[in-house]
Write a structure and sequence with these properties.
- By secondary structure, the protein is α+β, with helices and mostly antiparallel strands.
- The chain folds into 2 domains: 131 residues, no CATH class; 63 residues, no CATH class.
- 30% of the residues lie in helices and 24% in strands.
- It contains 9 helices and 13 strands.
- Strands 2-1-13-12 form a 4-stranded mixed β-sheet, with no helix packed on it. Strands 7-4-10 form a 3-stranded antiparallel β-sheet. The chain has a two-stranded antiparallel sheet with strand order 3-11.
- A hairpin with a 5-residue loop joins β8 and β9.
- The radius of gyration is 27 Å and the shape is elongated.
- 9% of the residues are buried.
Length: 219
Amino acid sequence: MAYFEELPNILHPSLLPNQSKVEQRILVKNIFKRSKLRTDIDQAITAFNFYNIKEGMRPDILAEKLYNNSELDWVILTSNNIINIRNQWPLDHNDLYAYMLEKYGSDQNIAGIHHYETKKIVDEYNRTIMSAGLKVDADFTFQYKTFNNLIVNVNPVVAVTNYQYETKLNDEKRRIRVLKPQFLNTFLSEHREIMSYGSSSDFISRKVKGTYNPRISGV
């Protein structure tokens, strides 16, 4: 069940130069028609498993592994609201490097500092008094008092390179949720229902509807 095969059609006025009649139409896919997970399934924790995408794992490979059908890759994308694979699916090492090189221009710039972050600081009782990962200036300092009323000044700052920043963003995309196989048939049935047209003035069939033809005057 390839995704585009399930898209309904539109009889659209032909704009081809060799058309013989103004009312001539062509059948095209309605790419604006889109389905999503049913709300109760989408919000049900028990309907999903979490999955960590490994290096080089594509949506179609994962769909084959989970559902025994590589053409159900769109189910995985829909489950995670992924529309643009290039921006929302994790890149493999070579593609990530190519992306960085295009974005930053050179290896030297890739190794440059993107920003500074705090590192974790704990007191003598192992209590966290400064969380890690807060964006700060390079000269940020922090002061705290010990149990013995000693004042401690620290500079809990680490530099984060462009490489580290982009790698972290890419790795965060690796954890996705996947619909459990027992819910698959329910989703596919509802997807087909959503992709079907209801009664309207443009209705031709559940898979085809017409559109307004600006070439034909209503006068």
